[in-house]
From TrEMBL:
It comes from Nocardiopsis terrae. InterPro entries: 2-oxoA_DH_lipoyl-BS, 2-oxoacid_DH_actylTfrase, 2-oxoacid_DH_E2_comp, Biotin_lipoyl, CAT-like_dom_sf, E3-bd_dom_sf, PSBD, Single_hybrid_motif. Keywords: Acyltransferase, Lipoyl, Pyruvate, Transferase. Residues 85-177 are annotated as: Disordered. Residues 6-81 form the Lipoyl-binding domain. It is an enzyme of class 2 (transferase). This is Dihydrolipoamide acetyltransferase component of pyruvate dehydrogenase complex. Belongs to the 2-oxoacid dehydrogenase family. CDD domains: lipoyl_domain. Its cofactor is (R)-lipoate. Residues 180-217 form the Peripheral subunit-binding (PSBD) domain. GO terms for molecular function: dihydrolipoyllysine-residue acetyltransferase activity. Pfam families: 2-oxoacid_dh, Biotin_lipoyl, E3_binding.
Length: 463
């Protein structure tokens, strides 16, 4: 087979609105023989790390991107030349070189694949947004500029047509349509108020690349004030990537849009710890964590104060309540802070909830959670006590309207009747969206949770 018979696979749509991913490691090398659905690269998105399987089998002839490089969805990832006598997945003879870009809107195919119709030799891959079988709709083509990173582009067939402009980006530059392919480039331009119609693309056929937008951003940046001190020697710029950058954007949006307030209360945790000891003694093979008990108390509070299990529709100025509770919890991982979600937490027993929290936490630390497991939460619990701190005014996980915080449990003097005794005391905090509720609702919810911590048997009965 010649290079003209090669197939170039592009980074697929990874779901959850993700537009890019960082290459963490290559699992194959140029010259390797690979099979259909064999993982070829590990990439890290703003949500999680995933292995990307190839929809093609054959000999690897090109890896498009270095470890640590950020690749946009739709950009070339790997080029494969089928072995002699082999056809593409689905039993068809290999076509000329092409760069395929899955269309996530096509929906599941007849064989249950994601984004393409199935066939006799269809891929079993389930990565969001693509499948190896060919549907009846044509695949889209995307081309990288010659001046961009070292990645191969389509060499056979006619050149790719320019992308259509986004609304509000202008329709033409002279008589030619604006050539903006990457969703990352479009988003970057929008965030900095740049009209891409005014840019001269440095890519092939005038394609507007990320470096073109970056150059305009730097050109428009204000000059340092006269007399301002020079940059401190020895400083280093560290770009935010993956989960860290996603969290930074998420928290910034929360601060911009949500008028939050915080209430807090100290609680004697003696009753909760005694209950936990009894539960774990009764079933040591199914232990219950402190976080699971606090989460169970929060679920009881949400049943009584449903306004806190909701989101605020800014466009319509409406409160949207959720019947189900999809419980998020903050988890610190080597890749940064993430918020795994336990779906349908309200329907779980305390032991089931504890097990699910533990499983999600371990998966988050290992970086194997799917993007869908890191979104869609309706309420969040943050156990910052694991960092050895007593309290914190946490930032609400947008678009939710409240977050419950739990500090460390510390022995302190506590008034019991007429005596002062040492007791395990925990500080609970609730940050809430003041558009959604007032201090009465927030205080009522937090007081209920604190009462559960102090007298769990009385309030919860049989767990």
């Amino acid at each position: 087979m010649s290079e003209a018979d090669a197939s170039t696979f592009s980074l697929p749509d990874l779901g959850e609105g993700l537009t890019e991913a960082e290459i963490v490691s290559w699992l194959v090398a140029v010259g390797d023989e690979i099979a259909v659905d064999q993982p070829v690269a590990e990439v890290e998105t703003a949500k999680a790390s995933v292995e990307v399987p190839s929809p093609y089998g054959g000999t690897v002839t090109g890896l498009h991107g270095a470890v640590g490089e950020v690749v946009a969805v739709g950009a070339p990832l790997i080029t494969v030349v089928p072995a002699a006598g082999l056809s593409e997945p689905g039993g068809r003879a290999p076509a000329n070189t092409r760069t395929t870009v899955p269309d996530a809107r096509e929906g599941p195919g007849p064989a249950g694949g994601n984004g393409a119709a199935g066939s006799d030799a269809d891929s079993g891959a389930v990565l969001v947004g693509y499948g190896t079988g060919r549907g009846t709709r044509p695949t889209r083509r995307r081309v990288r500029g010659k001046g961009g990173p070292s990645r191969s582009t389509a060499t056979g067939g006619p050149p790719a047509p320019p992308a259509e402009p986004l609304p509000g980006e202008g329709g033409t530059t002279g008589k030619e349509p604006i050539r903006v392919v990457s969703p990352l480039v479009r988003r970057l331009a929008r965030e900095h108020g740049i009209d891409v119609a005014e840019l001269r693309g440095s890519g092939e056929n005038g394609l507007v690349l990320r470096r073109d937008v970056r150059a305009r951003i730097e050109a428009c940046a204000p000059s340092p004030a006269v007399g301002s001190p020079p940059a401190e020697p020895g400083t280093h710029r560290v770009p935010l990537r993956g989960a860290h950058r996603s969290m930074a954007e998420h928290l910034s949006r929360s601060r911009r849009e949500i008028p939050e307030a915080t209430v807090w209360v100290d609680a004697d945790a003696t009753g909760m710890l005694e209950l936990r000891g009894q539960l774990n003694e009764a079933a040591p093979d199914r232990p219950v964590s402190v976080l699971a008990l606090v989460a169970r108390f929060a679920l009881l509070g949400l049943a009584r104060f449903p306004d806190l299990n909701a989101h605020f529709d800014t466009a319509r100025q409406e409160l949207v309540r959720h019947e189900a509770v999809h419980l998020g919890f903050a988890a610190q991982t080597p890749r940064g802070l993430v918020v795994p979600v336990v779906r349908g937490a309200h329907s779980l027993t305390t032991r089931e909830l504890s097990a699910r929290l533990g499983e999600r936490a371990e998966a988050a630390r290992s970086g194997v959670l799917a993007p869908a497991d890191l979104g869609g939460g309706t309420f969040t619990v943050n156990n910052y006590g694991v960092f050895g701190v007593d309290g914190s005014a946490a930032i609400i996980n947008h678009p939710e309207v409240a977050i419950l915080g739990v500090g460390r449990i510390l022995r302190r003097p506590w008034v019991v009747g007429d005596d002062v005794r040492p007791r395990p005391v925990v500080e609970l905090t609730l940050a809430f969206d003041h558009r959604v509720c007032d201090g009465g609702v927030a205080g009522g919810f937090l007081r209920l949770v604190a009462d559960c911590v102090e007298r769990p048997h009385l309030l919860l009965g049989d767990l």
